[in-house]
Amino acid sequence: MSLRNVGIVYRKELTESLRDRRTLISTIAVPILMFPMLMVGFSFVALKLVGAARKEVPKIMILGAEDAPEVANVFTKLSEVEVVPVASDYREQISNKKIRAAVELPKNFRAAFDRGESPVVKVYMYDGDLKSSLAANRLEKSLQEYRKETVVQRLASKNLPASFIDPFKISQQNVAPPEKVGGATFGGMIGYMVMLLSMTGAMYPAMDLTAGEKERGTMETILSSPILRTHLVLGKFFLVLTASLTTAGLAVTSMGISFGVLKGILMSQGAGGMNMTISLKSVLAVFIMALPLSVLFSAVLPTIALFAKSYKEAQSYLTPLTFLVVIPAVSSFLPGVELNPRLAIIPILNTSLVCREIVTGTYHWNYIALIFASTCVYAAVALFIAVKMFQREDVLFRT
Amino acid sequence: MIEARQLSKQFHDKKRGVIRAVENVTFCCQPGQIYGLLGANGAGKTTTLRLLATILEPTQGTAIVAGYDIIEQPQKVRAHIGFLSTATALYARLNAQEMVEYFGRLYGMNEAALQGRVDELFGRLEMNDFRDRRCDKLSTGMKQKVSIARTLVHDPPVMIFDEPTQGLDIMAARTTVAFIRELRQEGKTIIVSTHIMSEVQKLCDIIGIIDGGRLLAEGTLAELRERFAEQDLEEIFVKVVESAHLAAGKN
Known about the structure:
The complex is a heterodimer.
Chain A: H1 2-18, H2 21-55, E1 59-63, H3 69-76, E2 82-84, H4 90-95, E3 101-104, H5 109-114, E4 122-125, H6 130-157, H7 178-208, H8 211-216, H9 218-223, H10 229-268, H11 280-307, H12 311-318, H13 321-331, H14 349-359, H15 365-389, H16 393-396
Parallel strand pairs in A: 1-2, 1-3
Antiparallel strand pairs in A: 3-4
Chain B: E1 2-13, E2 17-29, E3 34-38, H1 45-52, E4 60-65, E5 68-69, H2 74-79, E6 81-85, H3 96-106, H4 111-124, H5 140-152, E7 158-162, H6 170-185, E8 189-194, H7 197-203, E9 206-211, E10 214-219, H8 221-228, H9 233-250
Parallel strand pairs in B: 3-8, 3-9, 6-7, 7-8
Antiparallel strand pairs in B: 1-2, 1-4, 4-5, 9-10
Helix pairs in contact in B: 3-4, 3-5, 5-6, 8-9
């Protein structure tokens, strides 16, 4: 009988939710569309912009060319830049984006250079402006090549090999398997997204099923029926949990697909060096770890929203709670924050930390058990409080 | 049957302190009778009915509703009453039939009995035209019919109506009043709260005048007319309330 009643309430809430556009948007549309729009869209636009910037032939100025015509020649020969006549307001021109960069050869540059001194060549640019940076980099690269040529010539004149100033080379080699690299790079983010979305997914139904019912006047209708408050709360709780898990599940799926597409785009652009392989197993494990947290959200959010008299009031209570998820989740990204027994009982932060480990393929079973158990305890306490709140007249009939 | 015994309810308000919403209310309503609770806004009508419906718990006293104590067996009470108030709205995104069925299931009805009952009620209340229409798309009169069907789906012996005609147009109000009379014919115990004098005169077998949370006078319309030497119910009501205010002033 009791399970039957919970089921009746759940089914009715599900029917109503599936007919509600706002619930459908927050639970289904947002998680599906967020990642493609964020990741694929953003990186596609970014690549396009960088590409366009690269295609532009930047205007540059060479100051002090009269002292070292053959150095200046290095730039004038470059096809990627357009050398414009010198003007005294070159600084303003760079700031106003009329020219992209300027190179200044100091007075008597060639003479100082030949004497073996180390004169300073300045490259003026607009820090933070992509096109200016590209132009400055191009100028610097030419200068470096010219310097290298000079060194080789000087060595040759003294009958020394080029390796004389290059006694050994250094090369970094990755030995971690691709999942670990991908995990370390994106692991934190996956756990964070799953947690954040399991909360946002629970948020709308949590408000609709409590404060919304009060506002619409259906709370008194349901309270006059013989259903036990516990069953009513459980029915509502399971619906909120369904929404929370649906949102988180769809988000993970959509994120996986978006990663795949993004990887494809990056590869085609020749940036295949990035390693984004994350195993399906670890993504599943993250999802399982987020389960008790989802239960916790599904119990806490309706309890808080129940205090509100209207949907709007509930919104003002729940929206700041997002920070409660964001802050611990983000602190898990901080360098040096590692799992320890004390952190393992702090809700949200513990899940975030363990997810980061799981995605890199490391399973600390004792911590996983502790986190799972503690989060389950918190969730049970929250559910108990939710039932108690539904039995309080001053909460249900707040005036 | 409904039997209220020294029913009292106090609320605590941060600004106003203790509010005695209902104080020592005692009355009795037999099956086949309509008891009318007549009072102004804020007199304590809704709180009294919410106490009888076990939506609120009394601070003192109790009531026996359909043979069950509201404090000891609230679940049983709820299973044997139909409660309809101005505050009991419908689920906007369910259709009329789903709404009534949902409550039938919550009252523990099996599917076969429920379908029979739903068909019967929809026919009797002439609701078949809007059976599949969502509740938020219904007119006020249609909504009231769905609400009535919802309260009657489990065929309860006791009906509690809190201002059943408030906000309804004349035709919808007439249909509601006629339906409440029909329910009396069926032998149900009915309590109705209202502030509309004509409605009380047309409908109620016993009238209880309530003000400031206290039941000030009670009797049939004839008894009240005789006791207060007035023909018009409105005059009787004003007399009762004013003399109570005067007595309170003296104290």
